[in-house]
């Protein structure tokens, strides 16, 4: 499947209502048989309604909430600040996966396996 990667910069607009239309269009145009939607740095788009940070727009969050309710495809988000995601949106996740930093032994093992794979394919 193709990964459709979007960020806040792709969806937000300075024009009133255009950000919401961009979100709706993203979901409407997604071919759920061959595409997966991936929102990177999701906290910039899907921040809490009570969070007044630049980029957190309650109407954009509301549009995401509305569109995912009827979306039959795969929708993924990534953030390094999961506590910033709007609670109403976070409740709709089927799965939440947290990737913790690797410890030293794990990093050495990963490096060793990667180098072995590279050497074997050469």
What can you see in these coordinates?
The protein is α/β, with parallel strands linked by helices and 122 residues long. It contains 5 helices and 3 strands. A 3-stranded parallel sheet has the order 1-2-3. The two termini are 28 Å apart.
Tell me how many strands there are: 3
The share of residues in extended strands comes to 5-15%
Structural class: alpha/beta
Poorly predicted segments: none
Q: Sum up the overall morphology in one term.
A: elongated
Mean pLDDT: 88
H-E order: EHHEHEHH
Q: Characterize the biggest β-sheet.
A: 3 strands, parallel
Number of helices: 5
In whole angstroms, the N-to-C terminal distance is 28 Å
Major beta sheet, strand line-up: 1-2-3
Give the assembly state of these chains. single chain
- Percentage of residues assigned to helices: 40-55%
Q: C-alpha Rg, in Å?
A: 18 Å
Name its key features.
122 residues; alpha/beta; three-stranded parallel sheet
Layout of SSEs?
Blueprint: E1 2-6, H1 8-11, H2 18-29, E2 35-39, H3 58-69, E3 74-77, H4 87-90, H5 104-121
Parallel strand pairs: 1-2, 2-3
Structure described in brief:
Helices cover 41% and strands 11% of the residues. The chain is α/β, with parallel strands linked by helices and 122 residues long.
């Amino acid at each position: 499947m193709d990964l459709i990667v979007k960020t806040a910069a792709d969806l937000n607009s300075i024009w009133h209502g255009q950000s919401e239309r961009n979100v709706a269009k993203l979901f409407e145009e997604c071919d759920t048989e061959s595409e997966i939607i991936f929102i990177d740095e999701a906290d910039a788009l899907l921040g809490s309604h009570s969070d007044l940070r630049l980029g957190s727009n309650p109407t954009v969050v509301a549009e995401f909430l509305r569109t995912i309710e009827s979306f039959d495809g795969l929708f993924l988000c990534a953030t390094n600040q999961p506590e910033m995601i709007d609670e109403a949106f976070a409740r709709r996740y089927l799965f939440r996966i947290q990737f913790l930093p690797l410890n030293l032994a794990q990093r050495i093992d990963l490096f060793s396996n990667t180098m072995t794979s590279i050497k074997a394919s050469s």
